[in-house]
């Protein structure tokens, strides 16, 4: 849909709108990214990652997912940010389609519970 704007508006207006929309999206995403990657409890986990721990376990220890309290927030995450709240699944399977993140999260959460591995989620909104 972003390409269509270049056909219905002057080039510079469409480009300005696109860049402004991207900038606003990045500002909105910044808190999500910080919460998911730089939590204080992840600092110790990152140092353990270099101690011979399996790569997958290191990813599970140093990444967390966001859990949204409202249906609207979950839909906005899916539609606008392509499931960016599923950072664990994104780190483990970077080529996976975001459409599959929710299903993969359920399977992975159950596997982590069964194997005694960490699966960190942070409530937001």
Short description:
The protein is mostly helical. The chain is built from 7 helices and 2 strands, in the order H-H-H-H-E-H-H-H-E.
Q: Secondary structure elements and their pairing?
A:
Layout: H1 2-8, H2 11-37, H3 40-49, H4 55-62, E1 64-68, H5 71-81, H6 87-92, H7 101-115, E2 120-124
Parallel strand pairs: 1-2
Describe this structure in words.
This protein has 125 residues and is mainly α. It is built from 7 helices and 2 strands, in the order H-H-H-H-E-H-H-H-E. Strands 1-2 form a two-stranded parallel ribbon. Helix 1 packs antiparallel against helix 2 and helix 3 runs antiparallel to helix 4. The radius of gyration is 18 Å and the shape is elongated. The model has no long low-confidence stretch (mean pLDDT 80).
| Broad structural category | mainly alpha
Radius of gyration: 18 Å
Number of strands: 2
What does the main sheet amount to? Answer: 2 strands, parallel
Helix content: 55-70%
Low-confidence stretches: none
Q: How much beta, percentage-wise?
A: 5-15%
Taking the alpha carbons of the first and last residues, their distance comes to: 28 Å
- Mean pLDDT across residues: 80
Total of DSSP H or I helical runs spanning 4+ residues: 7
Strand order of the largest sheet: 1-2
SSE pattern, N- to C-terminal: HHHHEHHHE
């Amino acid at each position: 849909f972003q390409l269509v704007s270049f056909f219905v508006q002057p080039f510079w207006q469409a480009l300005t709108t696109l860049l402004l929309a991207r900038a606003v999206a990045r500002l909105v995403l910044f808190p999500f990214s910080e919460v998911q990657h730089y939590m204080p409890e992840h600092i110790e986990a990152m140092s353990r990652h270099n101690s011979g721990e399996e790569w997958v376990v290191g990813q599970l220890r140093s990444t967390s997912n966001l859990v949204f309290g409202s249906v609207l927030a979950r839909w906005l995450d899916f539609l606008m940010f392509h499931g960016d709240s599923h950072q664990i699944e994104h780190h483990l399977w970077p080529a996976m389609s975001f459409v599959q993140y929710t299903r993969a999260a359920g399977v992975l959460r159950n596997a982590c519970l069964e194997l005694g591995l960490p699966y960190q989620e942070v409530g937001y909104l």
